[in-house]
Amino acid sequence: MESRAKAAGHAMHQQLVVLPLGLLATAVAFDAIGFVTHDGRLAFASYLMIVVAVVTGLAASAFGLIDYLAIPRGTRAKRVALLHGSGNLVMLLLFTGSSLLRAGSPDYMPRPTSFVLALVALVIAAGTGWLGGELVGRLGIGVDDDAGLDAPARLTTGISVPRGPR
């Protein structure tokens, strides 16, 4: 099922998820290193990464929702996509909570509660990332209808809304 929101011929959602996921994983790593080294600069960098990741994650989710709405009802893909999107919403909320808890602390150093929230959120992100791979790799969501080893390049762009019953 071809993506309904594209830029330069590729699904917007698939392009946008890379940045927030990379930032969130790096933020947790910076926090872990910051705990060990007591380096407030790493904690502050982690805080900024989480903020940027939540904002870009919300942008990615908007395009994911566009594709979700185009998936036919009653399919396994619709159920997997609902779990994928819901899990990502929970993950973003947990990271948001983690950043809010640390906002008032010196050097934005995470307290144990905010660090645990971020760790749980990262585990959820790993699971929802796997579900995203299932959607694309096995269920063909966001894959061009004419995809193949010798498919021609198409630099289409825009958002299309399906007409009629699916």
UniProtKB/TrEMBL annotation:
Report TM segments: 45-69, 81-101, 113-132
Quote any Pfam family the record assigns: DUF2231
InterPro entries the record matches: DUF2231_TM (IPR019251)
Q: Which residues form the DUF2231 domain?
A: 9-144
Organism, scientific name: Myceligenerans pegani
Alphabetically ordered keywords of this record: Membrane, Transmembrane, Transmembrane helix
Q: Which top-rank group of organisms is this from?
A: Bacteria
- State the name under which the record lists this protein: DUF2231 domain-containing protein
